[in-house]
Amino acid sequence: MTAVEGDAAREHAARIGRDGYTIVENAIEADLLDALADDLLRLERKLGAEPARNAFEGHHTVRIYNLLARGDVYARIPVHENVLPVVERVLDTGCLVSSLSSIAIDPGETAQPIHADDQLIPIPKPHPPTVCNSMWALTDFTDENGATRIIPGSHLADHSPEFGKHYDSVAAEMPRGSVLIWHGSLWHGGGGNRTGTRRVGVAMNYCAGYIRQQENQQLGIPHDIVRGFSPRLQELCGFGVYFGLIGHIDKNTPAQLLGSVDDSRMIWDLA
User: Fold this and answer.
1) CA–CA separation, 254 and 154 (whole Å)
2) Burial bucket for residue 148 (CB in 10 Å: 0-12, 13-18, 19+)
3) Where are the alpha helices (DSSP H) in 168-269?
């Protein structure tokens, strides 16, 4: 498996700029797919995870949040060599983990309302991406089993969709091991599952370094677990400072809370 980098990463990022999304096929190695699928079933049993039963999260959809705090295997996701280089070209290398969760759509689920992941951010549209999200296919994604519904080009609209209103959309079909990556302004939603089998995906969401995360990684993940992360994953979880300013603690990097030594300087020191 060849890493998505250089020209390939730029092409995927350019496609997101033009169409609002891209699909990286054959992105995830089989052993990781198997490990994630097995562990998600373990977590579902351990946590007694059940559908939230609301219009957005679904009545027949099982979601597990805060996955970085729930097992070592999940630390492989945010820094994956076939996904992160694309996200970094859409946002920048100062991007952060916003949330990491699983979404298992069971038979009988109806389509999720069309929405944009950044529509609660009160800035005019269209705008540069503040959010870049991805969906990892742990099973095949088809029109029949609940593949993510998308409206290509909608990230360029001057408004967000009206929640609950019907919009024509297409299924982002992709084989197991693929990853759908999209601009946070893209109009989309989970599909309905008209089959007899479950559709399983992992939602790996990123935000620009100047946007607060959807899940508070600094408080949600015990520091003993974060100390075992790679330096890059620690930065992605917010234990760093964006452009020498955003996210500091009394002019110090949050990494010092982990006992790390950091020589980075604040922006005021560089003036």
Assistant:
1) 37
2) buried
3) 217-220, 223-226, 231-236
Helices (H) and strands (E) in the chain, counts: 6, 9
Q: Check residue 247 and report its DSSP letter.
A: T
What percentage of the chain carries pLDDT values higher than 70?
97
Using an 8 Å Cβ cutoff, are 37 and 114 in contact? no
DSSP-derived secondary structure for 157-186: SSSPPPTT-----EE--B-TT-EEEEETT-
Question: Which residue ranges make up each domain of the chain?
Answer: 6-229
At the topology level of CATH, where does 6-229 sit?
Jelly Rolls (2.60.120)
Q: How far apart are CA 212 and CA 218, in angstroms?
A: 11
Q: Token match 């096929």: residue? A: 25
Closest by CA to 112, choosing from 141, 150, 142, 138, is 150
* Whole-number Å distance between alpha carbons of 52 and 150: 23
Could you tell me the two tokens for 88? 């970094």
Q: What would the pLDDT profile of 45-88 be if each residue is shown by its tens digit?
A: 999 999 999 999 999 999 999 999 999 999 999 999 999 999 99
